[in-house]
Amino acid sequence: MVIDMEQELARNTYVLQEDEKIGTVKIADDVVAMIAALAATEVDGVAAMGGNMSNEILKRVGMKSLAKGAKVDVLNQKVKVELAITMEYGFNIPATCQQVQNKVKSAIENMTGLEVTDVNIRIAGINVTKDK
Question: What is the secondary structure of 35-100 as a DSSP string?
Fold first, then answer.
């Protein structure tokens, strides 16, 4: 059972740094997806990831659910990100998405050292609050 878990982890884990004297640093693709999702939700106008949860619900169910709206593919130290987000009503969609793309790219590259080649965004919904 442990061997199967290690094989599964190895399949979704990427080497960030390898040094014979010190050791190896690896990162799971779920962690890269979490970085992308957290960065995206920090942008004003983004209500949630995945189009099915509000931030209040997300706080209750935990951070693992946050990454469900983010998918990453890592190949040769290059990252392609796919995000599904729910926007707040009244925000400019192209401008907000550009901010999300820049924030996600910057966060992943600064935290992991991987190069982000694409940040593709799908608008999964619009959050309309009763206040507006």
Answer: HHHHHHHTSTTEEEETTS--HHHHHHH-GGGGGGGEEEEEETTEEEEEEEEEEETTS-HHHHHHHH
Residue the block writes with tokens 């080649």: 117
Can you give the pTM of this predicted structure?
A: 0.78
pLDDT digits over 91-131, tens only?
A: 999 999 999 999 999 999 999 999 999 999 999 999 987 66
132 three-class SS: coil
29-51, pLDDT tens digit by residue? 889 999 999 999 999 999 988 75
Q: What is the dihedral of CA 36, 62, 16, 85, to 10 degrees?
A: -20
The full set of domains in the chain, from first to last, is 28-127 (3.30.70.1350)
| 15 CB-contact burial (10 Å; exposed 0-12 / middle 13-18 / buried 19+) | exposed
